[in-house]
Amino acid sequence: QVQLVQSGGGLVQPGGSLTLSCAASGISFRLSAMAWYRQAPGKQREFVAGITGDDGTNYKDTVKGRFTISRDNAKNTIYLQMNSLKPEDTAVYYCWYGNAWGQGTQVTVSS
After folding, report:
1. How many angstroms separate the Cα of 105 from the Cα of each of 30, 64, 86?
2. Residue 58: alpha-carbon gap to chain centroid
């Protein structure tokens, strides 16, 4: 059974940085494409960043150059490093694999 357990997140001032983690179990992690999504209040869940089994990456246009997705196959974990955070990045962030979701992590960017 697929399980995705997230950590990280919190409150940060504009321009600050946060790192999210997502530990996966029950999958062939090394071969798996995974992604981060987010959902702001009153809005639909949207794609943020994805990473393939061979470390190919893609990003939502508005986070390119600020966010970095990466993976550690030894730890079955993906990360989302978020720099230069803006108030519009405020949302609940979700880790994704297949039809499974992490539990969600609140990221709030506010002064």
Report:
1. 24, 21, 17
2. 12
